[in-house]
Amino acid sequence: MDTIILLDDIDLLAQWKESEWIRQKKTYPAAQTPSVVLAARRQVLAIPPDQKGMLPDPKTSVASFLQADLPSQPPRLVFEKAEKAFHHDPPTEDLQGMNFRMRPIPPKPFIEKLEQSFGQAWFDGASSVVDSRYKQSRLPLYVLTYWREMSRVLEKMARWHTASKWLDRYVQKHGHNDMTNKVHTILDNLAWGADLRAYGAATTTDTLAILLSEAWLDDELIDMLTTHLASRVRGRPDLEKCLAVVTLSFQHCILAYSGKRPDGPVPTVLLDIKERVNSGIQQLYFPANLENTHWVAFHVDFNARIIQYGDSQVAQPSKAKTGPVQRLVKAIQAWSRAELRIELQNLGNTLVHGLQKDSSSCGVTNVR
Fold first, then answer.
1. The pLDDT value given to residue 287
2. Which of 103, 191, 320, 353 could be a cystine partner for 325, CB 3.0 to 4.6 Å?
3. Alpha-carbon distance 298 to 287, whole Å?
4. Does residue 310 surpass a pLDDT of 90?
């Protein structure tokens, strides 16, 4: 739910007539909400500028963010039903009240239920949200936005706390070195939740916290690492003319292709690879996400007419006879046969690769 006042909203709000919508016994049109209603909704739920300071600045450094005092969010609290939490009377306090800043926010599922119930409650004339945990506490409707955003902030803080503790354990075991010192310097300067637009990513900086953990690398990070590798290849003219590294989009498009042209336009990534192969590209490398449980590196040699992969959980050369690896191999073979007139032989798990010693390092071994 977008609560930012958009430039286009100015014209829409000029058309908004509250008397035609609010307290008119109308049903909130959740399925096909008119633009003018959405604009008015965004305005009602927007946190006033003088109260936005209740949320930590996403550009604050990770190190400073970890020292911030923020409200808690208990996983379970006793609340009324969401639709009964709205009241027609005006608020009795705002977000800057003396006792509000450290007040625990409701559990995430309850916040979601409040947001789902808001539209109809607003149409019925609701002016405030009752916080039944506190006597005579009626909060402005935009507290829904605050609670939702603070819930996200707490999730990000938990992620960064996990990363910080992992780093502390690493230092205790291995001591300080150039690498850990660089990481601490980065955390002193890196914004904890700012937008991250690098190596094809469209995410926020807290995604990087996964790198300081034993967690499985997600699609966003694998794509960023792969895009970085691709940029290094492009920086080497001797490699660029014969080798290509592509992101997960290739796997997605290949599986959708299924041996025949898809309905509608052919995905750009497939057209690009076909053109590059016809122009002389011989080697293709890409990562594969196997059912969100495992990463495997793939290699196609169009000149030698072979396809192979490196599975970090398997040491010996082998061929998968069933499962996601085999399905992907067959999809690549079908695409190559139909579009390039090249029959690829499956060599199986013969691509040189590292071996993981745990259950989560497949992503790292995949891009090394």
1. 95
2. 320
3. 6
4. yes
**pLDDT, mean of residues 200-218:** 89
Q: Tell me, rounded to whole angstroms, the distance of Cα 184 from its chain centroid.
A: 24
Q: 76-90, 221-235, 280-294 — which is least confidently predicted?
A: 76-90
